[in-house]
Write a structure and sequence with these properties.
This protein has 2 domains: 151 residues, Alpha/beta knot, CATH 3.40.1280.10; 38 residues, tRNA(m1g37)methyltransferase, domain 2 (Trp Operon Repressor, Chain A), CATH 1.10.1270. The protein is built from 7 helices and 10 strands. The strands form 3 sheets. The protein has a 5-stranded parallel beta sheet with strand order 2-1-6-5-8. Helix 4 crosses helix 5. It starts with a strand and ends in a 7-residue tail after the last helix. The model has no long low-confidence stretch (mean pLDDT 93). The site of adenine has 11 residues, from strand 5.
């Protein structure tokens, strides 16, 4: 799966995407990350990417021309890719969205918006507008990393032989993970629940079920 991120801050990404499981996914050839620097498509000697809003108002908006050119570049690498725009007014990212994206396996082109907003015509390029929650961040970079992380970990082969991606939090039955413990059995007066040490699988399942929290997603 090709994942292309369009951003004014490409340097923000490698620290997150090229670490741990996300790096493993890349090393195994399951995903390929690339970063398209929106500034390269800026206009004039100052490579301008933003301008003031018609009708007045504070702040600057991303101009359409650089973003159209950047998306066209990304599409020339992967013509069937789905285009995502990270924006606080998008549909809220949920595990079921993540699962459907991971299943589709089509490439992703992710636009990170910035400044006070963007020219609305940009949305004509976009298949899906995604918000990671009801709060406003300074840009779409951190939301894009959240989207990539949540999708890549579900791609077959990324979590190795483990079934953890399937049984883990926010699975189909909307059950959150149950509490888990590892050694030692007792730490600072806090004991591991006896049933987990019992070896009775049916009892353990029952305990896990009753101690799982139900998600509101
Ligand atoms: N850009 C700024 N805030 C955002 C959010 N909550 N989700 C997605 N993109 C954003």
């Amino acid at each position: 799966m090709k994942i292309q991120v369009i951003t004014l801050f490409p340097k923000m990404f490698p620290a997150v995407l090229e670490t741990s499981m996300l790096l493993k996914a890349k090393d195994l050839g399951i995903v390929e990350y690339s970063y398209i620097d929106l500034r390269e498509f800026g206009q004039g000697p100052r490579k301008q990417v933003d301008d003031t809003p018609y009708g007045g108002g504070d702040g600057m908006l991303l101009k359409p021309e650089p973003l159209f050119a950047a998306v066209e570049r990304a599409k020339s690498n992967d013509k069937d890719a789905t285009v995502y725009l990270m924006t606080p007014v998008g549909e809220r990212l949920k595990q079921k969205t993540v699962r459907s994206i991971a299943k589709e396996k089509t490439g992703m082109i992710i636009i990170c918006a910035h400044y006070e907003g963007y020219d609305e015509r940009i949305t004509s390029l976009v298949d899906r507008q995604i918000s990671i929650g009801d709060y406003v961040l300074t840009g779409g970079e951190i939301p894009a990393m959240v989207l990539v992380d949540s999708v890549v970990r579900l791609l077959p082969g990324v979590l190795g032989g483990e079934t953890s991606a399937e049984i883990e939090s926010f699975s189909d039955d909307q059950t959150l993970e149950f509490p888990q413990y590892t050694r030692p059995e007792e730490f600072r007066d806090m004991k591991v629940p006896g049933v987990l040490l019992s070896g009775h699988h049916a009892e353990i399942e029952k305990w896990r079920d009753t101690h799982s929290k139900k998600a509101d997603n």
